[in-house]
Structures are given as structure tokens and as C-alpha cells.
Amino acid sequence: MACPICEKRKAERFCPAKGEKICAVCCGTEREVTIDCPSDCSYLISAHRYEDGHQRSLPADIPLLDERIPQDIVYTQQQLMAALAFSIAKFCAAQPATVDADVLAAIQALAHTYKTLSSGIIYEKPPDAPLPRELYAALIAFITEVKKQQSERAGAATLKDMDLFYLCVFLYRMGLLRSNGRPRSRRFIEFLRSQFPQAPELKREESRIIVP
Question: What's the N-to-C CA distance of the chain in angstroms?
Fold first, then answer.
């Protein structure tokens, strides 16, 4: 039987996303590109293991790579960093169509917002696409609530916009390195979920693997 994607090569790998067999070449080239692979697909897992041992290089023109992050910021704001990561993972669990590219777009926009705010200028430019825009709004709402709670507590330290910018840059770089750059990759999202294994809000999607 010919592969339903290329219609040339022999279909020999069962694809849980498509519910039928496809050829090995199309599995490799279309994985997380045109095929929306479930996280428990054995071929996807094997590919990710290979990627873990061959870290991809990032183009020099990627935004925020030239920013210098203070060495202590991740430690002094560790609790807030974890809360931001959890908020992203929670959003993605509620919106399973979200991919790494959506998360990165939201974090990048958030970083630019807080860098602008740190200079005294109020200017926002949320992402245009619906899912990144929704995640951006959710993170803004979360940070606003954190700031409000701090202002209501006597003697509480004030959360600085520049610190938020640095945390966003750190998360953005982490996402770039955790993701593989494919359009439908969810490697970074899966990584964030794995940091909170006991959270019921982050329950993984039901398996789409169908026994052929």
C-alpha cells in the first residue's frame, strides 16, 4: 500500500495522528510540520531523544539573544519564575491546540512590554494570532494580580518591570532551546508540564494511538 502523503513510497509506519500507515520518509519530514503528532507516539519520542543529544544552533538574528540577564535574577525571583511557567502550562492544558511557537510569541511580546514599561513608557503590542494573544493577556492579568497583592502587603518588595523583562527573556531562551523549531512542536510545552507532575490542571491529553 502506498503512503497516503507522498503516494509513492511504501506505507510501513503506523501514524497515530492520521490513523493509518505512512512511509518512514514522510514520518520524518512531516512530523510536527504538517502532522500534529501526539506526545506519546513512539516515533516522535525516538526523534526527541535524538534531538536531545544534538542541540540545534540558534540563528544570530533571533530577538532577545543579545540581552544580558543578571546572574542572580532567576534565583531571587525563583517563585515568580515557577508561577509564570505554571501559568503557561495551565493555559496550554486548557488550549491543547497551542504549540511552542504560540508560547514563544506570547513571551516575546511580554518581554517587549515590560522593557518598555521599565523606561517609563506605557506601550503594548500583543501578538496578532489568537492563541498567543490570549496567552499574553492571561500572563499580563496574572502579573497585574501579583503586583496588586504586593501593594496591599505592608513592607512587601515591589516587583520591578525590568525584573519581569529579564524573567521573560530567560523563559524565551529556554523555550527556544527546548523546542525543535518545527511549526507544530510542543517540546517546550511538554517540558513545562513535566515540572508540575502533580498538578491536576495540567492533565495530559488522552492518547490518540489507535491499535492498527
Answer: 14
HSE-up of residue 159 (Cα within 13 Å, Cβ side):
22
CB-side neighbour CA atoms (13 Å) of 82: 8
Pairing of strands 20-22, 13-15: antiparallel
CA gap 131, 137 in Å, rounded = 10
Residues 64, 111 contacting (CB under 8 angstroms): yes
Give the type of residue at 95: Q
Residue 6 has phi, psi (to 5 degrees) of -90, -20
- CA distance linking residue 52 with residue 184, whole number of Å: 18
Residue 56 grid cell: 540545534
Nearest CA to 175 out of 103, 109, 106, 111 is that of 103
pLDDT digits (tens, 9 = 90+) for 10-48: 999 999 999 999 999 999 999 999 999 998 999 999 999
